[in-house]
Inverse folding.
């Protein structure tokens, strides 16, 4: 029987922040601690090198990418956001060192957001990057199979962008005469639904 090595003692969040700030000095925009979590913000040009370091450096050793998603900051802060619009955020895990970090990188072009793919560093990035491409339109340069993963192949636009209409652009149906699926302009009338607000003093028997 092989004995398992005991799990590493988790490092304090402030110590991890300082460790990563020292490791990545001069190559990142910020290393911040908020709500007990460390976030590294990096420029697109330095993204691949930083991610490689986070995986390979002995004091980091983030051998697993457990999540990657897109973000649209266009309405962030009630419209007061002045930075780049699109970002990708990754969550990395070091099983061996019992530590986690979040990495955020912004695309430089709001009209055509492009970021390097990290799928050659972590295979798990493959489908995550496809999802961010599908939902936000972020192109991951170097990805070997960048195509839609959640929406239909004929889908138009990127539905998680904040300017995407709730009704979408097209609808599809099966046409019995042509015996195939067809796409047509959406016929749903746009309307606003205002939720009913109940302000009774003792609503639900609560006092």
């Amino acid at each position: 029987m092989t004995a398992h090595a005991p799990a590493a003692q988790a490092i304090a969040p402030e110590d991890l922040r300082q460790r990563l700030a020292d490791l990545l000095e001069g190559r990142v925009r910020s290393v911040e601690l908020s709500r007990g979590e460390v976030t590294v913000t990096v420029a697109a040009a330095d993204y691949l090198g930083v991610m490689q370091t986070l995986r390979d450096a002995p004091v980091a050793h983030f051998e697993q990418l457990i999540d990657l998603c897109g973000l649209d900051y266009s309405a962030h802060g009630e419209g007061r956001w002045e930075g780049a619009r699109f970002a990708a955020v990754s969550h990395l895990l070091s099983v061996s060192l019992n530590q986690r970090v979040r990495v955020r990188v912004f695309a430089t072009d709001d009209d055509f957001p492009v970021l390097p793919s990290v799928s050659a560093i972590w295979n798990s990035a493959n489908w995550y990057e496809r999802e961010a491409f599908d939902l936000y339109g972020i192109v991951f340069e170097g990805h070997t199979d960048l195509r839609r993963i959640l929406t239909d192949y004929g889908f138009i636009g990127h539905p998680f962008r904040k300017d995407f209409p709730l009704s979408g652009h097209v609808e599809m149906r099966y046409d019995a005469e042509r015996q195939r699926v067809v796409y047509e302009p959406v016929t749903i009338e746009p309307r606003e639904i205002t939720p009913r607000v109940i302000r009774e003093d003792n609503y639900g028997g609560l006092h």
About this structure: The beta strands are 30-34, 37-42, 64-72, 86-94, 99-106, 114-116, 139-141, 170-175, 180-185.
